[in-house]
Write a structure and sequence with these properties.
Elements: H1 14-31, H2 34-53, H3 58-78, H4 83-98, H5 102-122
């Protein structure tokens, strides 16, 4: 699975999630500066906080999750090196929306975002 997102993000096992995050975080560290993904990660963190404060209601964050996609596209349009990051998270959002277990998929989405950013920094991404 190395670096691949399943069609249903709820099916992404923790070991595979960590593998995807490590692979992609290392890849992104070569070309993407921390500041280029900071705004996107901040938006994901706000969605996660809203999700948790809503009693973990997918419906409470559905709109914001969908509207994260154009934000990702904008970031990739401004900085072409961000395109692989945008593609990964666009596919991850699609895998959440397609999931039959939306809450589980959303939890995996948040974990994936956090892990990718952590490995991105770990592998030496520049500020």
């Amino acid at each position: 699975m190395n670096g691949e997102i399943p069609d249903d993000l709820a099916k992404l096992e923790p070991e595979k999630l960590a593998d995807v995050a490590r692979t992609k975080g290392e890849e992104f560290a070569r070309n993407i500066r921390v500041s280029q993904i900071r705004n996107i990660y901040s938006a994901i963190t706000r969605i996660r906080n809203e999700y948790q404060s809503s009693g973990k209601s997918f419906e409470a964050v559905h709109r914001r999750l969908v509207l994260l996609r154009p934000r990702l596209a904008y970031a990739a349009g401004r900085n072409p090196e961000v395109k692989p990051f945008q593609e990964l998270f666009d596919k991850a959002i699609e895998a959440v929306l397609r999931s039959t277990k939306k809450n589980e998929a959303l939890e995996n989405f948040f974990a994936l975002a956090e892990a990718v950013v952590a490995y991105h920094k770990f592998y030496g991404a520049k500020d």
